[in-house]
Amino acid sequence: MFKQSILILLAAVCMFNTAEGKSFNRGKSGGHEADMYSVLPFKRCAKISNWLEFIHKTIDFPYNKYFDGLRDAPHQNFSWGKYGHRIFFHWGFNSRPWSPQIQEQVDKCGWSPQVTASFKAKLVTEQAKRNKAIMEKTAGVFNLSLSGQERAYANALASIVSDVHLLGDYTTENIAPLPNLQFVMNDLKTSLFERMQGGEQAKRINKLIDNTAVRYPDSKQRAQAVLAILQKELPSFIRESGALKKGNDINLL
What we know:
The chain is mainly alpha-helical and about 250 residues long. The protein has helices spanning about 1-15, 30-40, 45-60, 100-110, 115-140, 150-170, 180-195, 200-215, 220-240. Helix content is about 60%, strand content about 0%. Helix 3 runs antiparallel to helix 5 and helix 3 (about 45-60) packs across helix 6 (about 150-170). The longest helix is centred in the middle third of the chain and has 30 residues, at about 115-140. It is globular.
């Protein structure tokens, strides 16, 4: 029955996704926002939607600039070429800000090791800036501190939303810039077991995620299979995790 529900979901997804990519589509079906809400235990409200869109924008916007100084000298000849905007910040919230795709484009520039190192440093600095903003936003929305276990909870919530964005992108045509899907799976599993301290329940969900590697060798189908698992399992898991403080004004499902 569960496998049948995944197949139905896969068919439905094909109706929404095109070579143009996937949009946030606030308040609508078929977009990143709908995917994010589907794995969370919250009713739709402005506070949650603003948080989700904030994370979305750190991944997708602005399309043609990305961040100040990216192509300042000595990096003015860098081009993302065939990869488009997804070559940046589609790595997962906790992932290293470098990829084979970026390395490929850097190799074309013929830079010295020193110039390449300074380019890497730019990306590390920018990722840290964006992640800090996301962590502060997440902590504010859920009334969490940015230390100890509450910081881990905030990181897990931000990671889950970012990873669901990537799963959605894997259902589109332009997947060449995206990271190895296993990296996304690993980040999800770490969020559930270590950052959420999910124990045996997290182990059970993580095993379901691992099993998709054999059942769905195609990355697009696997991404949707994993999303279906998260939709079924995560709302109750997050609700019971301890990450949501009592007295929070978020409306739970």
